[in-house]
Design goal:
Layout: E1 2-12, E2 24-35, E3 38-43, E4 53-61, E5 63-68, H1 86-99, H2 102-119, E6 121-128, H3 144-156, E7 159-166, E8 171-173, E9 176-178, H4 192-205, H5 210-216, E10 217-223, H6 231-240, E11 246-250, H7 254-264, H8 268-274, E12 282-286, H9 292-300, E13 304-307, H10 309-314, H11 322-328, E14 331-334, H12 344-359, H13 367-374, H14 376-381, E15 398-401, E16 425-430, E17 433-437, E18 440-441, H15 446-458
Parallel strand pairs: 1-4, 5-6, 6-7, 7-10, 10-11, 11-12, 12-13, 13-14
Antiparallel strand pairs: 1-2, 2-3, 4-15, 8-9, 15-16, 16-17, 17-18
Helix pairs in contact: 2-3, 2-15, 9-11, 12-13
């Protein structure tokens, strides 16, 4: 057993009740006892004792990056010269995707996941669709690219939910779905049946990939979007994903809505509802351009809505109806998507600040709501319902953030996330094992991780 003494910590003393009797709140002098991958003891208002590992500042439960495209990290700081749109940005994304192979994907994802850990993330949902060779033919191992992501997460020490993505069509216009373009060939499996067969094979490989895969990896499924999967196939994907997380890009751009209405006479949300693809295991990503009817349907289905504010503003997507979705019954989670920056605190701040800009009101989400969105809700959306909380029996995933840096000095502990940055993260523990200590990742100091990123990205440009 290991004991950790936290100067202050976000403790969930609700015992699973919702609404809780006390719920998630900051407590002082918290001792956590971990054994293996679990928290087995938790006491508050105690002094440090000999043998405790001391965590100054504020300890947060594990933070989930619910939506990631690891290879997009290679685009950071390279897409801004000519303005453009989301659709022109995609051309640069395709160019990077075309250069990936299992070895270069492993190098880039390892460094990207290490950057996430340094920033305080303890779990990531990888929306994975770069499945095959650039010409669309399968590797000898049809899941070689997914295996590279699993290996990368193991090296970086972060939990991974591999969201194996069904991507069958090249787009949707008013006259119907388009075939995959040459640059999209490696994303597709041809049919839902072939995608299901490969995904099932991926699931069976987990036990053979060692303890990390067994204990730290979950398999989920994804519908890339209603642009990439025809209506007739949506229900089949949802059926194949029964019992595991199902994620889908939803209404990120008005053009998607316009095409869907023109061809199907339905919004993307209505199309997914008709296919039985909406439910508590479903996470809709972005959900930016929704009708009131869409919001009601998503809330009634108790989906999770994953917002990616730093990506949505980088791509000029718009501001989604986060408060309205939460009020309708949806859970909210957060992701860094294309990794324009990797900063969980900024994602949470942006969720609130974008609401302020849209509504002209402050305090649209409380600090407690923002912490839940970063932690427990994201973990649940990734298939880890026992994570993202500091409570007895929960996964031993937590993050310590210093409270006396030039950014955080003078802040109240419960409002630290409004000021903190990745540089304030001192300790990251995943499954009871220390991944970041004194601000340094187990693979090296931040400068070394930067060198790894530069080398991996240099191979792709």
């Amino acid at each position: 057993m290991t004991t950790w003494w936290c100067e202050a910590a976000w403790v969930d003393d609700a015992d699973g009740a919702d609404p809780p009797p006390l719920g998630l709140r900051v407590r002082d002098g918290v001792r956590l006892v971990t054994e293996g991958s679990r928290i087995v003891g938790l006491t508050c208002d105690v002094a440090p004792a000999p043998g405790d590992i001391r965590l100054d500042g504020v300890a947060f439960p594990g933070l989930a990056n619910t939506h990631s495209h690891a290879f997009h990290r290679a685009l950071r700081g390279r897409t801004h010269a000519d303005g453009g749109t989301f659709w022109t940005w995609r051309e640069q994304m395709y160019a990077v995707a075309a250069r990936l192979d299992p070895a270069s994907y492993l190098a880039l994802a390892r460094a990207t996941y290490a950057e996430m850990a340094l920033a305080g993330y303890t779990a990531v949902g990888e929306f994975h669709y770069v499945h095959h060779r650039p010409d669309g033919t399968a590797y000898e191992d049809p899941n070689a690219m997914g295996a590279a992501l699993v290996a990368a997460a193991a090296d970086a020490g972060i939990r991974l939910t591999l969201l194996d993505t069904c991507y069958l069509a090249g787009g949707l216009g008013p006259d119907g779905h388009l075939p995959l373009a040459p640059e999209q060939q490696r994303f597709g499996d041809g049919t839902v049946a072939k995608w299901t067969e490969r995904m099932t094979q991926r699931a069976s490989q987990g036990a053979s990939q060692g303890a990390f895969a067994r204990d730290h990896v979950r398999l989920g499924a994804a519908i890339h979007s209603v642009r990439a999967v025809e209506r007739a196939d949506l229900a089949a994907v949802a059926k194949a994903a029964d019992g595991i997380p199902l994620h889908v890009h939803l209404s990120e751009q008005p053009a998607e809505n316009d095409s869907c209405r023109a061809f199907y006479g339905r919004t993307p949300t209505e199309l997914l509802a008709d296919a039985g693809a909406l439910g508590p295991n479903t996470t809709v990503v972005h959900a930016t351009h929704l009708t009131d009817t869409d919001i009601t349907a998503l809330g009634s289905a108790r989906v999770t809505a994953c917002f990616c504010p730093t990506t949505e503003r980088d791509l000029a997507d718009g501001i989604g109806p986060a408060r309205a979705l939460a009020d309708a019954g949806a859970q909210l989670a957060l992701g860094s998507d294309q990794h324009a920056i990797i900063d969980p605190f900024e994602e949470a701040r942006a969720l609130e600040s974008h609401e302020r800009l849209a509504s002209l009101q402050r305090g649209r989400f409380t600090p407690t709501e923002l912490v839940r969105t970063l932690s427990r809700h994201g973990y649940a959306a990734l298939g880890w319902p026992d994570g993202g909380r500091l409570a007895v029996g929960a996964l031993a995933d937590f993050v310590a953030v210093q409270g006396d840096s030039v950014r955080t000095a003078g802040t109240r502990p419960e409002q630290l996330l409004y000021a903190a940055a990745p540089g304030d993260v001192t300790t990251v523990v995943v499954g009871g094992e220390t991944v970041v200590s004194r601000g340094e990742h187990r693979l090296g100091a931040a400068r070394e991780i930067g060198r790894m990123l530069a080398e991996a990205i240099g191979q792709l440009h």
